[in-house]
Amino acid sequence: MTPLEFRHAVRNGQFRLPTAGQCGAYAQANLVILPQAHADAFLLFCQRNPKACPLLAVGEPGQWNVAALGADMDLRADVPGYNIYRDGQLASQPHALHDVWRDDLVAFAIGCSFSFEQMLMDAGIALRHVEQRRNVAMYRTHIDNQKAGPFGGKLVVSMRPMKARDAIRAIQITSRYPAIHGAPVHLGDPALIGIADIAQPDYGDAVAIAADELPVFWACGVTPQEAIREARLPLVITHQPGYMLVTDIPNASLAAF
Amino acid sequence: MTPLEFRHAVRNGQFRLPTAGQCGAYAQANLVILPQAHADAFLLFCQRNPKACPLLAVGEPGQWNVAALGADMDLRADVPGYNIYRDGQLASQPHALHDVWRDDLVAFAIGCSFSFEQMLMDAGIALRHVEQRRNVAMYRTHIDNQKAGPFGGKLVVSMRPMKARDAIRAIQITSRYPAIHGAPVHLGDPALIGIADIAQPDYGDAVAIAADELPVFWACGVTPQEAIREARLPLVITHQPGYMLVTDIPNASLAAF
After folding, report:
1. Does residue B126 sit in the same domain as residue B107?
2. For chain A, how many structural domains are there in total?
3. Phi then psi dihedrals of residue A256, to 5 deg
4. CA-to-CA distance for A204 and A127, rounded, in angstroms?
5. What InterPro entries does the record point to (chains A, B) (predicted)?
6. 3-class DSSP state for residue A92?
7. What is the C-alpha separation between B66 and B145, in angstroms, rounded?
8. Choosing among A157, A181, A185, A187, which should be mutated to test the B contact, i.e. which has the most B CBs within 10 A?
9. ipTM of the complex model
10. B64 and B138 in one domain?
11. A143 lies in some domain
12. Per the CB < 8 Å rule, is B164 touching A257?
């Protein structure tokens, strides 16, 4: 299936599952949709926190067909599941946004680790959570995000256990892709970034770390969702974690070198 | 001082110290000089162990003015100290090779970590052994080199303690320089590569590793000296560890990308 065919399947209600592994050669995106009144501050938040919030595209106010993300795009219906937050609280989880769409809504598409996971697996690096068909383990760190307007909060990281040799190779591979979180932000001792118990992720599923492995931590696209909840805005719409927007952007085209 | 001026100072007996920090923008080299009868096997050993033995240049038999390494080069006198091995035993440590030079001797110049240390420091990464004016700590691992002819032995690594963030940056920086050992071969638990006691290096000086640091291990140019000693050839000449050949090759020109 092409990304366009996949989006049509989503739009028609034929696909309502997590998108991991779908159209693996193409970038998937985290989605944040905000009223124009808060869009400039959120854009600045992304600029100041580029490892957690690398922007693939930003729409114009009211625009749901953002061509930079793909042909015949409809951001109101092309994601298998949305979270609607009102005053910082999760209010509903619809499959489409036609009822709530407004002419002042601005869409932000943020790079997603599904893209670099594909490249790691292509390089022969096994990913335990993929093998075990679990969601990746994610943790809130003690690292403050750089603030912008109402947006702040702590950096959230995803963790993948690896042997040192694979960790070194993974750093090389992901360094080429600043648009999909880039190089890891930490590896080794979790306590050094404020993770008290590696067996208790704040999001996703725990995986075991073998004696000959290091935990390797990447900045995570859940970070902006934390910042958004803390900002307690009247209305914010996001994708549901794991239910991403599949774009027409080839992952390979995002290589910085 | 230019590299040529520095080499002239060495040649004239005005400089007989370790070369760390001299002509920092230019590549320094490990030197191995062998009779032609063993040169092909040693070339193959370098090809099969490129992380420990990245070749900057190989001379013709008898050639001591290898232009690829610098102008007015004299490999018989431009290194501040030589080791002469006979039958695998250190036989003498002269300051020049005029007495022992032969028309069948072939010189190999191998990249040196002094080059990437300069780049790490330029990037703001502090190196403890440099701060403490010690030699870098080096360890024999349990990792077998790929054999070629009489050459084999174990991989020797150098170790630098770093915070995780600096280790990630150091992997990015050194990955650009395959000609000077490239990316690390290991980081974290020393036991996983056969190092029983990190406080007891096999060469060089121990440095402390802080609680918030990881030991980061690079393949080391001492590896071929181990292989050469084990091969017990009638005659091999090397530089003395730390007393390197200063070349005219700008470090920056060695970047692979």
Report:
1. no
2. 2
3. -80, -20
4. 14
5. D-Glu_cyclase, Putative_hydro-lyase, UPF0317
6. strand
7. 28
8. A187
9. 0.88
10. no
11. yes
12. no
